[in-house]
């Protein structure tokens, strides 16, 4: 039995090395970069799930408002995540080159870019939240749109800290 488990582990590591390793980077390095992204996605989806569960006793209009804004929230957070992932790719390249000075610059640049985009998106969506909701969800009832506006503004305030 021990031999079988050892054999499976060896084959699995070989598959991981073949598909996820490259010149100067092992599959372990790749997964160490991937882990924060997976955790981020888990919390993003979990956040929407918990919000819906908490508001479920408030009625259909509240649930609808939270879910339509949740869809927009996922879209915007994905924008921030894509900036962070772009920075991660650059950091990985400099890590592979062992250029540690540039890694620090890329980390700072990624943080500043994400804060700038998040703040700009939050301000833009706050200023235009009525037309955006009317354009995307204009057929929704007035109660749903009212709840969505309140929830959207609350969500947008959280973007600056992301």
Short overview:
The chain has helices spanning 2-20, 27-55, 60-96, 100-127, 129-137, 142-159. It is mostly helical and 162 residues long.
Structure description:
The chain is an all-alpha fold. The chain has one domain. It is built from 6 helices and no strands. It has helices spanning 2-20, 27-55, 60-96, 100-127, 129-137, 142-159. Helix 3 (60-96) runs antiparallel to helix 4 (100-127) and helix 3 (60-96) runs parallel beside helix 6. The longest helix is centred in the middle third of the chain and has 37 residues, at 60-96. The N and C termini lie far apart (48 Å). The model has no long low-confidence stretch (mean pLDDT 86).
Helix content: over 70%
Strand count, sense and barrel status of the largest sheet are:
none
Mean pLDDT: 86
Q: Round the Cα radius of gyration to an integer and report it.
A: 21 Å
Structural class: mainly alpha
Q: How many structural units, i.e. domains?
A: 1
The total of beta strands comes to 0
Low-confidence stretches: none
Through-space gap between termini: 48 Å
Silhouette: flat
- The DSSP helix count reads 6
Write the element-wise H/E pattern from the N-terminal end onward. HHHHHH
Name the beta content range. under 5%
Task: Identify the notable features of this structure and list them briefly.
mainly alpha; 162 residues; flat
Give me the secondary-structure topology.
Blueprint: H1 2-20, H2 27-55, H3 60-96, H4 100-127, H5 129-137, H6 142-159
């Amino acid at each position: 039995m021990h031999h079988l488990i050892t054999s499976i582990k060896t084959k699995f590591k070989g598959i991981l090395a073949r598909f996820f390793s490259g010149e100067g980077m092992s599959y372990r390095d790749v997964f160490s970069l991937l882990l924060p992204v997976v955790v981020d996605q888990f919390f993003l989806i979990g956040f929407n799930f918990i919000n819906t569960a908490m508001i479920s006793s408030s009625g259909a209009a509240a649930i609808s408002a939270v879910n339509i804004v949740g869809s927009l929230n996922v879209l915007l957070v994905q924008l921030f995540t894509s900036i962070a992932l772009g920075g991660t790719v650059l950091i990985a390249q400099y890590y592979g080159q062992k250029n540690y000075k540039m890694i620090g610059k890329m980390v700072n640049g990624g943080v500043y870019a994400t804060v700038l985009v998040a703040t700009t998106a939050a301000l833009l969506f706050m200023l235009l939240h009525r037309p955006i909701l009317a354009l995307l969800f204009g057929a929704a009832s007035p109660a749903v749109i009212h709840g969505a506006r309140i929830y959207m503004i609350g969500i947008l305030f959280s973007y600056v800290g992301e």
